[in-house]
Amino acid sequence: MKTTSSFERALLMIFMAGISGVVANGQTQKASPVKHASSYVAARDASPVKQDTIPVSTKSAEARRKYEMGMLHYEDLLMIDEGLDFLRDAVKADPHFALGHAMLGFATFDPMEAHRHRALSKQLIANASPDERLQIRWLNGTKDGQIVPAIAAMNDLLSKYPNDKQFANTVAAWLCSNEQAYDRGAEILERLLAKDDTYGPAMNNLAYCYALGGRANLAPAWMEKYIAAMPDQPNPQDSYGEISRMMGNFPAALEHYQAALKISPSFTSSQVGIATTYALMGDEERARAEYLKANEMTKDAPTIMNYRLLWAMTYFRENQIGRGRKAHMEVAEAAHKAGFAVQEAEAHRAMGLFNPDAKGALRDLDAARAVLTEKHVLSSGDHDTELATILQTRAYVAAIAGQNDVAKAALAPLTAIARTSRDNLIQQSYHSANGATLLLEGMYADAVSELQYDPRNPLSLQLLAEAETKAGEPAAGRDALSRLAGINDERVETAYAAPRARAKLSGAPSGSDQPAAQAKPAPVASARSTGFRGGPLQ
Amino acid sequence: MRNRFLIISSLLLTLAAGAFATDFAVIVHPSNTVRAMTLAELGKMFKGKSLTWPTGRNVTLILREPSQPAMKFVIERVMGVGAEEGKNMLTDATRKSAAPVVFVPSDADVVKAVEASPGALGIVDVYNINGGVKVIKIDEKQPFDPGYVLKGH
Would you call A156 and B131 a contact, using CB atoms and an 8 Å cutoff? Predict the structure, then answer.
């Protein structure tokens, strides 16, 4: 899921909070009171299926206890910060604990910490048992680009330890979010829940796997079960809100988000969910008020900047282009002062996308790209994905404006990045930009083939609809347009392209103020999968 | 307010479910010394024009049913012909003894069969491989490499 940049990744952290309990910029939801956790722990410990788990090799009883607590909080209770702290304590208690280092390297949001602990796990791997080594190979391989051996190790462990719920759940979440391998992820979770139909975290993930993988009709039933399994936790209600919104059922989404806030008034993810739901419903004034509430609920500066961008976008949503540009410029300036390069670039990119003048749009995108050339604390991965996103947007703008040379100029550096990167986001951005160029050159069938590699990006879907139609497949073109019209998420691409698709389908004049109420059902979840606990987001 | 959104047609869902990219892995028995081959060489095996491994061992293809959507992509890409023509070539009775093709219902069955047969070659969704098989490179690339030729959508 992504045309995306780090900002979208951050937005997707909000989105994936449904699965992981994590909000933008890695802030953990603090809403799970310990007393609720305790009751869930007790219930979990009583489960007869908790056996035959992958062994944990450490000479320190304290390290083992901390590790198990870390996994419980991180995986089962979705209390991410607490889980990470336990894992840090575990490797402090036993600095030679290879699996502990690997798990921390997988789970942490801090790239430096991740790198350090992955390296330690490799150095210390001789201390691990053979099966732990397989687990370490999976954990590290997902981060080091060694995906093929990582998958082999993962499947060997799933086969050998069919009752290890935490491992299966972690694996399935990775498959459905990072890898877009929805069928495989769902298959693992279905098998897991067939053995233990009380394991709430797996219900949550299964619902998301279904929703993201095009089987959204199967998701609500699991959400109901998830809520029943963990009635005093806010995350089940928040997840159901998210799923309902993805399916276009906005009243239900609001109801569930509000229920989550009733359980835990500080559950920021649900507050942002309410704001975005109103934005999608076309009530931008209410959305702005709700985004401001979300801002007040967090102290994390990058997260606040992300919420400010969502707030600013409401002006574009209601076609107030001048006001929207002013709001985005303010965010760009604030982000610049704070050194948040991605948010600053995203503000310019949003202005480019909504700029009705193609030349002006390209200038905005130049400004977005220029931000990345300044001196910032930005990982090379974040830099490249943001740059790829900007270039993809540039190719899209060029395609709409009929400027083949501009599209080619955007494609050239993107091709260079894509040649050396296995990042899904970069690969999809490349295919989209290449599709845009082929569309401009009249090679419609080839354009279709390329654009189909990026099926969740609203800009790519719009181009795909055009390419299909021009290739003589109007029904396929209309299907692509329908899928685009059914997207309900907070991405700037969605805010721009989805209302236009709805207008086109309904025969109404094109504009950007068509609320999602006009949309057809969303058969596919709207967001591209970009990250998860331990994924590249972190 | 939007009850109609809750009525999601199974047809649309089916179409949507088929819209995701998948890398297909070419797998062989771990004892097979081959580490890489070209798409053209793989195509010859599929067409029954290349019958043995360099060691002289006979090739057996283990595939999922050719009518499955994923296999249609594989057939078209590997054999360079339409799905129907490729299916006919794979199921042609005259090639049975030369380069047998075994069709199995699932990726898990493909993996199991390749694990058990030193001369076998199978193609599966990469997320279904395990440590009992070896993934070989095609045109010098393996799954997830940029430009990998068996990346379907």
Answer: yes
